[in-house]
Amino acid sequence: MAMGAPTTALFAALVVAPIGITVHYSLNDVNFLRDEISWVGFSNYAKLWESGDFRHALYVTLLIAAASVVIPNALGLLFAVLLDAGSRLYTTLRIILFAPFVLSPLVVGLTFRWTLANDGSLNNALEALGIPGPEWIASPNLAVVSVGLALAWQLIAFATVIYVASLRAIPTDLYEAASIDGASGYLRFRLITWPLVAPAVTITTLISLISALKLYDHVVALTGGGPGRSSETVGLAIIRAGFTQNRAGLASSMAVLLLVITAATTVISLRVLRRREVEL
Amino acid sequence: MRQLRALLAIVVSAFFLFPLYLVIANAFKTDPEILRSPAKPPIGPTLDGMSGVLSVGDVTGGLVNSLLITGSTIALIMVVSSMLAFALHMSNSWISNTVGTVILFGLILPTPVILIPVFRVLKYVGLENSFPGLILFLCAYYAPFAVLVYRGFMRSIPRELAEAASIDGASLASIYWSVILPLLRPATASVLVICGVWVWNEFLPPLVLLGPLQGNTVTVGLFRSVGQFDVNYGQLFSYMLFVSIPVLVFYLLLQRYFVRGLTAGATK
Known about the structure:
By secondary structure, chain A is mainly α. Chain A has helices spanning 5-26, 43-50, 52-83, 88-102, 105-116, 121-128, 140-168, 172-180, 185-196, 198-213, 217-222, 234-244, 248-278; strands spanning 28-31, 36-39.
């Protein structure tokens, strides 16, 4: 194990220990400016429970997480079926389609801010079709939708490429045999494609879930958490409490809660999805 | 039918390209053109935005810093995580099993959760507000993913290979260096390109761990300049183009390894 020591030490000092310190801070009032720390038990958690702002941030985060699991999986599989072909055109299109996933979330957020502005390209296009465009970023509900769209745009790109790789790995003679046996297109999808892309469902779901629960960059670039605090996520709330307001104790209690939610949802989805993979 | 499918596929792909197109097109237009019709291609392109952002901002400094940080981080990740993966591959003790399991939890950890204490830990060892501090943190944060890719790949390398070499008297370190590492080349390519893109795009850790005095990465610089450039859109889009070009080039050159690394778990 000696060769594993450097990584293990780094990981222990800069990931494991900080988690412990976060839990410790969450049970204290922490003031870095005056270098003071005092035990307060669970009162930070009680404050979270009472805070309407934090409950809203939690609601926004979970809503986006739910949408980020459903939409990229559904559209990713759909686009993958469309793009699953061998010719050079389709290979090129797949390379293009994946590009959004490698772009900086800040750049994605800023271009969406530009596109979704009141006089932006989307509303101009809607107007040309005779539909009055809504205020995407300035209205509290649509601001949340806008943030979700920016994230989904990157995740759909990711999902599509993962599903294409998964589809390409399915042996074609399975489909041929099923066709000879007279299976319809729907049956072939239901009995061959859907079970065999199960590992792609797992990885897309996990990546989407984790990206949505830690959402920060897209929001900062697109809405800044506004209007008011209507599109603020838990990630934003943690950084604001911890750095802007110098309330590291309160921020840490949010962090612990986010960590518990992330661990619980990923472990549960992993169990459910892995079982589906095994049953094939 | 075949033409219809191709057409549909092109439309869908174009839709995903639109924001990137917006960045590229508007980086070469004048402000009045951008405001009048942001979606139009640059007819008679201008270099005002590009040269403007280079003369006003700290873009060049940011690019150098980001290259330095990304390069050092991925080099370090490559070495230390392949070493850990090899150690885990060869050993079956309870220590290695525990490390192998605990490190998997690093895959799901949201950065905002630990950045406050990470800053305290780095301060404790005197590495706060420094490049080495940020590089070490990013290495620790992305190591779980790299270890996962390496371990998955090592399953195809028979353990007997290393054991045979050790019977011949080679030390574990020299087996790793001369036998295992060369075999890992495809996994290394995946780790370098995926972690490279992630580290380059990382925004919150440099914002928090570098502080305002150390010089920015390009992402932090872009964020700080958004307010500043609100009146000069050509420069803002040029800045975004500078942030995006390196990752796009890196991705296009190594996209095969990018997809292969990400699908390592999906198509086994």
